[in-house]
Amino acid sequence: MKITREVKTAVLVLSAIALLIFGYYFLKGNNLLDGSRTFYAVYDDVEGLARSSKVTINGLQVGKVTDIQIIDSRGNLAITFTVENDFEFSKNSIARIYGGGIIGGKSLAIVPTYEQGQMAKDGDTLNSEIEEGLLELVNDRLTPLQKKIENVIVSVDSLVNGFNEILDPNTRQNLRNSFASLDRTMASLENTSGTLNGILTDNKPKLDRTFTNLDEMSYNFNSFSDSLAEVNLAGIVNDFEEIAADLKNVAAKANSTDGTVGKLLNDPKVYDNLDRATKQLEQLLQDVKLNPKRYVHISVFGKRNKDYKPPKDSLK
């Protein structure tokens, strides 16, 4: 049977249309010749998940995300993804968005469950879940640190304001004056140090002689110490002890009434006799002074002196 030109043209056009449709879906990430299963999951936020993001099971890529659409007025998103192998998992398995970092994007992982029950089939909607990525974890860790840094900044700002209040123009001027005074003091100390150096330089010979004399005095003192060490201190101490014992004996005898000294010091009769004799002697001297003719008298006839004056306090 001869194929006409019109049939060939029709077959060519249909083939071109089929190739165009196949290429369109292929470019969109859908392979019309692939027998993979299609699943759905609903999220309120896809965390940056994009079309053509990979779908994994236990870390193995088994498909990709084919479509993301807004499904209601609240902004909930429905994700369409494919699974390209025949791995069986329960309908209660979880479609978890994970990953995401500074460079890499988000991915979708199927967390399978193997409990007995209905298995997932093409077109089912799986439970959704979002795992915190690197940026979220860093943000969670940095948020408390940010608050602390803000508190520190506020404290530093308060401290700076306090310093600004303290360091008013008058205080700053006083500080400048203090530093200027300190500078002058240091200059004076430097001049004083130079003067002391000059004095020490001028008097160096005298200082040398002084230190020489001190050395000689130290040597003489050492010699005196050696001589003193050679003295029989034990004998001198014994002599002093004997003298002290003799003095003690003398004091004991003086305190007792046995000896002459003790009687003179301790017997009241001796004191009374001495006191009476002293008074009699005093009266005798007074009588001699008042009546000298009574004791020195030359008379031819032996007449008594009629002008006798008795001494005061005469003994009765």
Automatic annotation (TrEMBL):
Keywords: Membrane, Transmembrane, Transmembrane helix
Keyword Membrane attached: yes
Mce/MlaD domain boundaries: 37-112
Record-annotated membrane-spanning stretches: 7-27
PANTHER family (alphabetical): INTERMEMBRANE PHOSPHOLIPID TRANSPORT SYSTEM BINDING PROTEIN MLAD (PTHR33371:SF4), INTERMEMBRANE PHOSPHOLIPID TRANSPORT SYSTEM BINDING PROTEIN MLAD-RELATED (PTHR33371)
Protein name, UniProt field: Mce/MlaD domain-containing protein
Record bears the keyword Transmembrane: yes
InterPro entries membership: Mce/MlaD, MlaD_Phospholipid_Transporter
Domain of life the protein comes from: Bacteria
